[in-house]
Amino acid sequence: METETATNWLTDSEQCAWRTYLDVNRMLTHQMEKDLQPFGLTNNDYEILVNLSEAEGQRLRMSDLAAATLQSKSRLSHQITRMENAGLVRRENCESDRRGLYAVLTDAGVETMEKVAPHHVASVRKHFIDLLSGEALSDLRASLTPVAEHLRGHRGKL
Amino acid sequence: METETATNWLTDSEQCAWRTYLDVNRMLTHQMEKDLQPFGLTNNDYEILVNLSEAEGQRLRMSDLAAATLQSKSRLSHQITRMENAGLVRRENCESDRRGLYAVLTDAGVETMEKVAPHHVASVRKHFIDLLSGEALSDLRASLTPVAEHLRGHRGKL
DNA sequence: CAGGCTTCGTTCAGAATTCAACTTCTTAGG
DNA sequence: CCTAAGAAGTTGAATTCTGAACGAAGCCTG
Prior knowledge:
The first copy, chain A, is mostly helical. The first copy, chain A, has six helices and three strands.
């Protein structure tokens, strides 16, 4: 009698999809990083700029920013320190909670964002969006949304 | 007369697809990493084990392995050093090219691979594959393949 | 076969990331 | 009001990653 539970291996087709996904992932990240380099920004820098510039008063609590960008508080703290040194961002105290801090976009941060965003969008188009049909794109979104929700549920401390 | 070129911003739908993609990306990477932790492996460790175990003679030249895993030679060199210390892999000289080295899976490496693979596959299924329909999966692959090819062309030195 | 390119892989220094304290403040219970 | 538990952020040390520089070996080309 069979007592072992056989592993439910991936089919060739599943495996291929998975590997393609992983490859695109890595190459795309790398390409984005490369396209931001001339502006002296990393992907992480840019994402923080995006989050802050979309936020009310161009500011977010450290914790919220960490959650929004899916990184640990520690990492964000170091990151913000670097960006503060670069003059893109500053820390500001929070009135309502004296433990709290806001990360606030500086004027230089706003300017940087305005300068860089068009190039970044062009890069996203060139290397991703414009390579997919409108239908493919909405299918992609439809497929990935449940995955995102599933993962949000599963995510523990960063 | 208009001299500026207006930025071709992303539509809401494009933006949403893009952000979902990025989110899944990061959360999935994180989840995979977490699921490998109990075995003392990182994603990078695992991917190298996969590549080596599928290779002829369970060995690959450093350069080929770096290319296969899309990382810089420098990073791979460090990585292999660590895995060598962990006993998963060893370096072996290359007969035909005296500059070259092979990274070779050790017996312990093979065993680790056999032990971990089923869990990893289960994790990939649980957090990705099984959340998508067969059709979604093949669409995904079809959509992403051209992107992968595009990026492969664009990729410079790592 | 000499000269100069290129490739292979490592190394070093500097930057980024992780992980585990730790401080300060808030909040809930008794 | 006091205390214990938890949350917000920071810090510092150890680890990992990056990018440039390097030595050694192969490959042309004349």
